[in-house]
Design brief:
Keywords: Nucleus. This protein has a domain of about 270 residues. About 25% of the residues lie in helices and about 20% in strands. Strands 1, 2, 3, 4, 5, 6, 9, 10, 11 and 12 form a 10-stranded mixed sheet that branches. A hairpin with a 7-residue loop joins strand 3 and strand 4.
Length: about 400
């Protein structure tokens, strides 16, 4: 293993600071390498996947005597030397034909691995697809494709969430009973690893809506499928195939404001079966899932964020006394002449007769004039003021 290097100049110091842990990690680099024996189909598959991953990719052309599941020390050495946290190793043997091993490391230590066996009967390269104009299609360098995982097996064992450079995507099982099966864990790990492999640079300031012109669809149908060209293991033959398809989005005229979207396959086309897998160690996974305190927002009381990212707050108002509310006095709520005392309580609301005191005094003093009718003339005795001339 490489020894600890003490920087002697500014150039080596900047290189070490670049590899040091950060709150926001750099985009992951993937290293492509082959074993001592690799078929031509496997080499073409590595070339196409390298083109999809570029520029965050490095490819080795020499043969390497590496056996990931027996001794991952060599892959850890390559990961540390090239500062690559993702590795794709291709090898072919009589027992495991056209085998791709996708590896992920944390702190340059092997975290998890998954084997995928390529079906030679359905493999198609990028250059073998032609568009409507007859020209060959290619995957643009540095494009950030959209991902779609379709199929029940991906969600039976848990949700594979893409991880950071120093972290593993959490696998939170939806169905605990299904998560205990090997098939459920394999498909959950496949979703996490493939998401981490294809997402590229996930910096929020580098998202271009016009650049979202490609989509990668990975489908896993229910039940096992038979097929030729697969591995000889009975366990892998019983699992459903993973169908990987890459499409380009084409916009065409629709006669409306929004265009009509059509999908055009540009390759590569891969059908794979899942093989052996190495699950992450418990202690190493805890370290990989740890987040720095500076990135975590402080929790506030009664404030939380829902699944859509919206902030939701909870308000607790005090108890209101309806009897102490000050209502506006209206003429329609006053008691009319001749109403009883019971109606006064209903009309006034509080039973106070202060507003009706003058009316009651007039009614009480009108007893002696009962039955007398006539015209009353009111005369103003005050003299009028003479207008002054200015």
């Amino acid at each position: 293993m490489l020894r600890q290097i003490t920087p002697r100049n500014a150039r080596s110091k900047r290189a070490l600071e670049k590899r040091a842990p950060k709150n926001e990690e750099n985009p992951k680099t993937c290293l492509f390498l082959r074993g001592t024996s690799a078929s031509q189909i496997l080499q073409d598959c590595l070339t196409d996947l390298h083109a999809m991953r570029a520029p965050l990719a490095k490819k080795f052309t020499k043969k390497n005597n590496v056996h990931p599941f027996e001794d991952p020390a060599s892959l850890e050495f390559f990961s540390r030397k090239n500062d690559a946290s993702l590795l794709l190793f291709g090898s072919s043997s009589k027992k495991r034909k056209h085998c791709l091993t996708l590896c992920r490391t944390f702190d340059f230590q092997m975290l998890d691995m998954l084997e995928m066996y390529v079906d030679e009967t359905s493999f198609t390269r990028i250059g073998q697809f032609a568009g409507e104009d007859g020209k060959k299609r290619s995957f643009p360098v540095g494009a950030r494709p959209m991902l779609l995982f379709a199929g029940t097996p991906f969600y039976e064992g848990g949700d594979g969430i893409e991880g950071r450079r120093d972290g593993l995507g959490g696998v939170a099982p939806r169905n605990p009973a299904a998560a205990t099966t090997d098939a459920g864990r394999k498909y959950a790990m496949a979703k996490s690893l493939l998401t981490d492999f294809f997402r590229g640079d996930s910096s929020p300031d580098k998202i271009d809506v016009e650049g979202l012109s490609h989509i990668i669809v990975i489908t896993a149908p229910e039940g096992g499928e038979g097929g030729a060209g697969t591995s000889g293991e009975g366990e892998a033959a019983a699992l459903p195939l993973l169908h990987l398809r890459v499409y380009a989005l084409r916009t065409k005229r629709s006669g409306q404001r929004l265009p009509r979207i059509e999908l055009e396959e540009i390759g590569p086309r891969l059908d794979m079966r899942l093989g052996r897998c190495k699950e992450p160690d418990t202690e190493l996974q805890k370290q990989a899932m740890r987040k720095p305190k500076s990135t975590e927002s402080r929790t506030k009381k009664n404030i939380e964020t829902d699944g859509m990212g919206d902030k939701v707050g909870r308000v607790h108002p005090g108890k209101q006394e309806m009897s102490e509310l000050q209502t506006r006095k209206m003429k329609g709520l006053k008691r009319q002449r001749g109403d009883g005392e019971g109606d006064a309580d209903n009309a006034g609301g509080n039973g106070n007769d202060d507003d009706f005191g003058d009316d009651q005094a007039v009614i009480e003093n009108a007893g002696e004039f009962t039955g007398v009718t006539g015209i009353v003339e009111v005369k103003n005795d005050f003299p009028k003021k003479k207008a002054r001339r200015s």
